[in-house]
Amino acid sequence: MVIGETQIAGGPDAIDMAALYLQRGEVVAVPTETVYGLAADAQNQDAVVKIFQAKNRPANNPLITHVLSAAHAAHLTGSWPKSARILASAFWPGPLTLILPSAEKLAPAVSAGLPTVGIRVPAHPIMRTILEKSERPLAAPSANTSGHVSPTTAEHVLTDLRGRIKLIVDGGSCAVGIESTVVGFEDEQPVIYRPGIITAEDIQGALGLAGISTPVRHHVAQGSEQPLPSPGLLSRHYAPHRPTHLFMRSDVAHLESMLGSRLTRSGRPGVISFGPLPRTPDNASWIMLPEDLYHAAGELYRAMRSLDRDDISAILIELPGTRQLSIRSGDASEINDVIPRLSGMARVLADRLMRASMPWPEAHR
Ligand code: TXA
Ligand code: MG
Questions:
Q1: pTM score of the predicted model
Q2: Which of 142, 146, 178, 197 to mutate to test the pocket of ligand 1 (most atoms within 8 A of CB)?
Q3: Does the C-beta of 120 come closer than 6 Å to ligand 1?
Q4: How far is CA 253 from the centre of its chain?
Q5: Backbone φ, ψ for residue 124 (5° rounding)
């Protein structure tokens, strides 16, 4: 699907052009506070289908719809659990998506066969202006090719979607840097389908709950034709093209054995850590992210994308928040076991990194 040149543009003219394209049923990449989105008029089925085509996204993975306010969200949805209302007033505008019953006012492709819609009120001023000017609810998944790391700059979008879309509105780097927290409701109880910078602890605090369900380990077979409970839970996702492996700071021996192993024989290894490592990795391209995981989240995808290049043999990423855990990390199943023991942002980033380090399913190799 070649549509010619892709233009990157910023400023008021770019915003006006984006609104015009969206009204005409075209797709446009737009900045949000989390990651760049690939937007289309959520009430125009042909326009929404173009999102799936441009991203090569499986048709059974529903899209998030962006609106200006909770009142707009209410217009597109059926009845809300009480906890949904509390979360909307606590965290909107912001990086929270609520899965609510659909009022069936959107193009069917948005919900991908589910009786619900994912809705978010974004905070980014450019995205809000585009919503105002286009006067439409905007369906927008992350503006990457399906399965790849989400884009946090206009250049990242261009890398993935060059020639497949006409316009990328440049709003600089996304401040949050990882995708919104996705919360659904099962028997009126909130369930975190995708952890995010609004953490389980934040949601519990807002709702006065002692605990909340986070089915991080829901793994659904990739390529399945069934509607999925929340398809972002597919195992491999947010993934660089280079083989990606995790290590724990408490197990330097494991990192060193990976650095010296066949994983890294065909080139330089890339290493991403959260803060300094006990020993500088020899002969590696090393990116040290901030120890503060909120700040690190803002830079993580940029780091993963910058190491995803031909001269890098494998990307080795620290599983954050494991400093205190004295577990050997050589065995992937042990890393799985560690995730439920993490909390706050460590748990959030571990979820993304787990998915980034899953092997590609056969069909994608
Ligand atoms: O921060 C974000 O959420 C970004 C920006 C652009 O807003 N968007 C984003 O969209 O990350 P996407 O499509 O990459 O991720 C949306 C997630 C997917 O895991 C999808 O399966 C889930 O939300 N989702 C959307 N609608 C849903 C629904 N009705 N039921 C369950 N899950 C849903
Ligand atoms: Mg995505």
A1: 0.93
A2: 142
A3: yes
A4: 31
A5: -65, 125
